[in-house]
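Write out this protein's structure.
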Amino acid sequence: MGDKQNRLSKLDSTPVQLLAVDIDGTLLDSHHQVRPRVRKALQNVSFDGLIVSLVTGRPRCGTLPLLEDLGLTAPDITSGGAYIFDSAQDHVVAYQPLLPETARAVVQLARRPDVGIYFGSPDNISYEIPYEDFHRTSVIDPRYLHRASDLLFETDLQPGKITLVADYPILKDLEGQIRTMRIPLELTYSGDRFLEINRAGVDKGSALKSLSEYLGIPLEGVVAVGDSPNDISMLRVAGVSVAMGNAASEVQQVADLVAPSNDEDGVAWLMEKIG
């Protein structure tokens, strides 16, 4: 309890240098929009000297329009931690895609009519037919989407991340089957219908560590905020961890602080508290 109180006090006693922000369910509201108060808070970042980095399960192509809209130029983490890019320097800080044999094994196991299989790479997302639920679940710009008849022959089999989309009971069954293959992987969820698969050792937490080292910022000066199970790894490594009010219960349990929900300007509230 004492350690938790000490970590919470850092919002007041220690200058926060880096704010790591998840996108869906955190930065964006339930309508996938940036609320006015949040936008205003982000516009004041340059005056406060705070670095704001987006940390998301989306591939970078699905993040770029938002980065451009908000004018954010700090390095960002995408594909669930597989890709770190510094746009100001036009520099790939790190990229750790899945291995071809791993991607092939996952596709062969997950192929069924009620499961969507998505390969997320920095420049595009490839998804396989006959699954046709994509437009109900995706918020990605269609220009970055590639509809493949066979992912095993129409891609390089080295995506930054594979996402399986289906009803939760189906995903839990697939998760169990994948784990029995004993392939070193990171498996996590970004919602009840999204199972994310990354290379072993690759997650938002490991990427945040790498980013803090790249920027020369100690983890004690990092605040991370998110809402989904795939955010837990970064919440655990940040100096101060914040869960959104709409976050899953297991996310709130590991956080030092719970902010208002994404429909109640939670990110703006946090930035104002930091400032």
